[in-house]
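User: Please fill in residues for this 143-position structure.
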């Protein structure tokens, strides 16, 4: 019985350490979104609250309309006329941050396209891959 308990302890500790080691490799290969930051190796790109919410929304839905971004909860306190000016400017600034600060091999950018059916509707899409990171415990235990 003691050997069985020791064997189970050894197997579980081996599993945890191997997942933690793989997490280190995963962090070195991928761009991760953590709270209000985008990280890669030792690189940290700080984001404002609104920028972080827009990126989270684009991670969930790869292609969204500009009007859908207007409806995000972080923009509720803004007037409609201010949203029409601020949000396109915010998207342009995010794209400039990605172009200037994110390593070129990831090709991370925000693209603006017109809808194929209705040319008045602007669609924003996230090109590249950002992976949401929820902590090492969630990664090790696959939560």
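Assistant: Residues filled in for all 143 positions:
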């Amino acid at each position: 019985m003691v050997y069985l308990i020791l064997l189970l302890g050894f197997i579980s500790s081996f599993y945890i350490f191997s997942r933690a080691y793989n997490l280190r490799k995963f962090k070195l290969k991928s761009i991760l979104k953590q709270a209000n930051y985008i990280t890669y190796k030792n690189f940290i790109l700080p984001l404002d609250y609104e920028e972080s919410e827009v990126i989270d929304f684009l991670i969930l839905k790869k292609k969204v309309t500009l009007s859908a971004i207007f409806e995000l909860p972080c923009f509720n306190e803004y007037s409609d006329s201010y949203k029409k000016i601020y949000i396109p400017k915010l998207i342009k600034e995010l794209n400039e941050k990605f172009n200037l600060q994110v390593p070129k091999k990831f090709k991370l950018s925000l693209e603006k396209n017109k809808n194929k059916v209705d040319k008045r509707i602007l669609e924003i899409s996230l090109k590249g891959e950002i992976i949401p990171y929820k902590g090492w415990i969630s990664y090790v235990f696959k939560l």
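For context: The mean pLDDT is 87.
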